[in-house]
Amino acid sequence: MKWAYTSAVIPTKLDEVKEILLKNRSIEDTDTFFSPLHPNDLTYAACNLDEKQIKKVHKRLEKAKASAEKVVIFGDYDADGITATAIVWLALKEFGITAQPFIPLRDTHGYGLSIGALEEVIAIHNPSVVITVDNGIVAHEAADFLADKGIDLLLSDHHQPEKKLPKATAVVHSTSLCGATVGWMMIRELVSKEYAESLLDLAGIGTIADQVPLTDSNRAFAYHGVAALRTTKRRGIRSLLATAKSDQRLLTSTTVGYLLAPRINAMGRLAHGMDALRLLCSQNPAQVAKLTTLLTETNSERQDLTRDLFEEALEKAKEQSEEHVIIVYSENYHEGIIGLIAGRLMERFWKPVIVLSVAKTTAKASVRSIPGIHITDFLRNFKEQMTSLGGHPMAAGFGVENTKLEALVAAIQKKARKAISTDILEQMLTVECQLSKELASLALLQVLEAFAPFGAANPYPVFALHDLEVASAKSMGKDGTHLVVTLSTAEDSYPLKVIGWRQARRLDQFEVGSKVTIAGYFEKNVWRDKEYLQFILKDVQQV
User: Fold this and answer.
1) Peptide bond just before 213 cis, omega within 30 deg
2) Residue 461 maps to a domain
3) d(CA 335, CA 354)
4) Residue 191 sits in a domain of what CATH number?
């Protein structure tokens, strides 16, 4: 892995660190960056939303309210889709419409707005209005199906559209937001400002979980969403945090990304996302306790399954070292886990990865990409060979008949060898700057926290520390897959604790007494009400 230093300056003062980070991120309007606009003050134009389409939604919902029509909210089973559904359901309830939420089952209905799922919706609820959140922008057949049934479709989504949009009463769409915040903007003016603000905790989860770029409007939602989560009274969120022994007052974007989102996502992967939705919306203590246990246990099952299947997929991926896209498939791969496997393989090999779960007649794929490769656009070259396709620049999903699978794999890899440059496939670690050992302190974290929340397009700052002596090193974790190292820093300072998640393979690079140069990021570890500095390892070089 190559390291690319964004700044050649080696700061000696904390103020210099701040200036380097501002310059590296090309931040000129520091007031707006450090104090983002409240989402209530965002314009539709700033979010790349069409106000006329939102007004159409409001007009149709006012009619539905007046006539007591049946309304269904058609959501999605990931954290963005679940929070989007919760936002719109709660807002409509406040507005005066008791809508029915519908979360598709991954293995029964597949992804997004499908005719099969809609047939079930109609049989159960018989709605006159269907509102989609976080899906539907390429669901032409399903939209036509609803039109033929005389059911009005209010479509809201943030995924990549095709040239032609589906037939709908209104299409509220922006690729600048996530599904939850498109939904929030859509209903914002149906309720009071105070009530809209009360839903920002959910919008914050969706924004961070879906890994949209945390700049501009997304930064506003993430910033105020994290603040709302620290004080939220929502029982389900508080219960999840308490069960995970996480202090709500100290919640960060990392808490959302590594604690809340995985537990919500686990239901859509292995069980039913509807239970995650119920947890977020419930005010019944007994139901909240029961659902918290269910989400926690399902997430543990997801972790175990991911670990086992990743090891199996890793062996297949190693055989494709010369390919520009890695493609692995098996009947053993659980459909709810393939996205996680793809993400881990992408991190390991720094190439786009396609992982397919093969069923009796069809296979379903989850795809993860690297910066510089718009994977959904690339896969559209093969759309005629697929049964479905949708996604983002960095992630996608598609279906394919088993009889066409091998030919499709060969075609994708053949084109990838020509279309994807080997230069793009060379993994590069972006490092803010080299940091003097003396600045490795809790005081540094105060400077860094001002740049939060962190995520896509505003990553947690990665620094390099040079010439540190290894005091100890060992593997840790249930299966010994993680790494923990202590390094000597400045004189009269505590040793620096270094954590390498899923990096036990690097243990032999940390020989006690040797010197190393490390790259990674700092974080605060709170143990028994005391704060400690620790360093999360990204890479290491021998001195």
Assistant:
1) no
2) yes
3) 12
4) 3.90.1640.30
